[in-house]
Design a protein that fits this description.
By secondary structure, the chain is an alpha+beta fold. It has two domains: 34 residues; 74 residues, no CATH class. It has a five-stranded antiparallel beta sheet, covered by helices on one side. A two-stranded antiparallel sheet has the order 1-2. A hairpin with a 5-residue loop joins β8 and β9. The two termini are 47 Å apart.
């Protein structure tokens, strides 16, 4: 895989070889550098849902046991039996708890914040 500068030089060389020269003098090729082409792009726009998840969710990493379960606080939650010993991500966000493996939701639970500041999983 070529980086942007290398790709630019390679394409410029191909153009140079393709168009050749005129009367022993090389043709003047008008090309733009990557900086000139991408100057308008100031940043990446993300959806509100994506930003909410990043900024307001709490993420934990746990490992599944040999039966596909994980321990989270005082709870034993099901992930997936076929992913035994694999690392999974536990997201706690806005009344829900999700168990994910490589951005794929394995299970989702509803969480109720009780007065004793401990989470209670409803189902």
């Amino acid at each position: 895989m070529l980086v942007c500068g290398q790709q630019f030089k390679r394409e410029r060389m191909i153009l140079w070889q393709y168009f050749g020269s005129e009367g022993g003098k090389p043709l003047l090729l008008v090309t733009h550098s990557p900086v000139q082409v991408l100057a308008w792009h100031k940043g990446t726009m993300y959806s509100a849902e994506f930003l909410d998840r990043i900024l307001f969710a709490t993420r934990y990493t746990r490992y599944l046991d040999k039966h596909g379960f994980l321990r989270f606080q005082n709870w034993k939650l099901y992930g997936e039996q076929g992913l035994a010993k694999a690392p999974v991500t536990v997201w706690v966000y806005d009344g829900s708890l999700k168990v994910e493996y490589q951005a794929v939701t394995l299970s989702q639970y509803t969480v109720d914040e009780s007065t004793s500041r401990k989470s209670r999983i409803l189902a």
